[in-house]
From TrEMBL:
Domain of life: Bacteria
Protein's gene: yhhQ
NCBIfam families xrefs: queuosine precursor transporter
Molecular function GO labels: transmembrane transporter activity
This protein's GO CC annotations: plasma membrane
Protein name (database record): Probable queuosine precursor transporter
Localization of this protein: Cell inner membrane
Keywords: Cell inner membrane, Cell membrane, Membrane, Transmembrane, Transmembrane helix, Transport
Cited InterPro entries: YhhQ
Family statement drawn from the similarity comment of this UniProt entry: Belongs to the vitamin uptake transporter (VUT/ECF) (TC 2.A.88) family. Q precursor transporter subfamily.
Species assigned in the record: Maliponia aquimaris
Length: 213
């Protein structure tokens, strides 16, 4: 790791920290404010990969992972009151799902980007982010809330997340966590497209002597 990599590490740490805070605040019925900050982690990873290569990109990922684990550990110690009982702000399943999803999705993003880096400029960041975001959403929500994985934390009642409700408020009945996952995934896909603009601009500024197809 060199001093040149520090901005990427700090940016990733800030995004992970902000997302862990903002996930506590609802945005509408299906999202939290954290849904709009967390996808920026893929932009940081892809910028590091394009400018410095996959090695430094992985270092930034691991830095974000460490910050995420630290936030989860703090969250498990914060107790909230509700409906006559006390519960942790971050459950073991949420902490596990968050860590597994982040590390797996980000490392897959790095690998796909590196494989496609010689193609047209938009192909690597778009493909890697779409695959990484999909994997991230599937892993986090299934680990954190699926009834089939309740054995991960037997004392954690996730029946509320598995309540059958109209999908996204108007479709056929589905578990609540499925609607939450799809809404989160949709935001990630939209931001993946929007992120191509700052990706292009920052890469052009940081590597003025390199040509992009």
């Amino acid at each position: 790791m060199s001093r040149a990599h520090l901005p990427g590490i700090l940016a990733m740490a800030a995004i992970v920290l902000a997302s862990n805070i903002l996930v506590q605040f609802l945005f509408g019925q299906w999202l939290t404010w954290g849904a709009f900050t967390y996808p920026l982690a893929f932009l940081v990873t892809d910028l590091m990969n394009r400018i410095y290569g996959p090695g430094p990109a992985r270092q930034v990922v691991f830095a974000g992972f460490v910050v995420g684990v630290f936030c989860s550990l703090i969250g498990t110690q914060i107790m909230l009151q509700g409906d006559g009982y006390t519960y942790p702000a971050v459950t073991v399943r949420i902490a596990l799902g968050s860590g597994v999803a982040f590390l797996t999705a980000q490392l897959v993003d790095v690998a796909i980007f590196d494989r496609l880096r010689q193609g047209r400029w938009w192909r690597a960041p778009l493909a890697s982010t779409l695959v990484g975001s999909t994997l991230d959403t599937a892993l986090f929500f299934s680990i954190a809330f699926s009834a089939q994985l309740s054995w991960l934390e037997a004392g954690n009642d996730v029946s509320w997340a598995n309540e059958g409700l109209p999908f996204l408020g108007f479709g056929p009945d589905a578990a609540l966590w499925v609607s939450l996952a799809v809404a989160d995934w949709s935001v990630k896909l939209g931001l993946a497209l929007l992120a191509l603009v700052p990706f292009r601009l920052i890469v052009s500024w940081a590597t003025p002597n390199q040509k992009t197809a």
